[in-house]
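Team,

Forwarding the record for the chain on the shared tracking sheet. I've put the sequence and predicted structure together so nobody has to dig through attachments.
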Amino acid sequence: MRIMHVLKHSQRSNGHVHVAVDLACAQADAGHEVTFVHAHGSYDELLRDHGVAIATVPEASSPMSALQSERALLHVARRARPQVVHAHMMSSAVLAYPVSKLVASPLVTTMHNSFDGHSWLMRLGTVVVAVSQAERQRLIDRGFPVRKVRCVLNGAVASPREALPDDATIGPLARPSVVSLCGLHARKAVGDAIAAFSKAQPSAPGWHMHVIGSGPDQGRLEALTRDLGMSDSVHFTGPSLTPWRLLEQADVFVSSSLDEPFGLSIAEARAAGCAVVATAVGGVPEVLDHGRAGQLVPASAPEAMATVLRRLMTDSEELARWRARARDNAEYFSVRRMAEDYDEVYRLVLR
């Protein structure tokens, strides 16, 4: 099958980018002809190593540049002759829609960020893919036609990106440790996780917390850490292209998001054998097998999260039990399974 993925960019530290890169590599490995279209990115060498063709189009930042992007994408599509066009995120769906019509190829859109105000634009797809059943229901409740919305749970385990060389900018983690891995912006509510750790850590004074990621809230979060008197125990590592090596060193993984369509880093933490504590929002309960593979707490409730963390940090048997439960059936969230599920979606639209 000839598949063309369209993204605005493929820069590191973006969950939808990681999904698209992994999917394109897995599809090429399975024998599909895959073209990956973007303006710029972090993973071109990896994609080429897997046989994915790279095409660049200028980023649409104004009406004039949008027209140039449209023309460039049409040129790529006429050369690649895709049987399916797959757009990730809203701007890519808008760009890909007229091109898919001109080359007579169905358009698949994946809804990575339904909380975005422009997410209704993903209806342009012949089929709209939700990344969890909770997200699928959310879209239907918003008026998306039931017949158009399919669910494909993201895959993160055995990612092609794991072949990237170790990120030497981040040294070994101080242990025992709690780890957060996400962008540092308001929706992720990392301050709640830091506050929860500060409440639990006096009961386990040897523990550390590592915040892996970057974003506009970093300065505010560092100030919060100082105000809580936790600067010696909470460490900001910055982002990493190879977070699996860090997750494998961690004991507990924490996610304090206010909204999370899926929770890619939670699936990665499960595979690494971290005990998981996460807010019960969006698709997170599905990633944690509804509480069997990790402990769910309410959003915006640091005290509730601290109670769970305190038990894990002070009871080695409790910690070992939840680490084992995280690993159980974690392989379901593999990139290969995700690619096979998308094959079914593609066959559906081609029929």
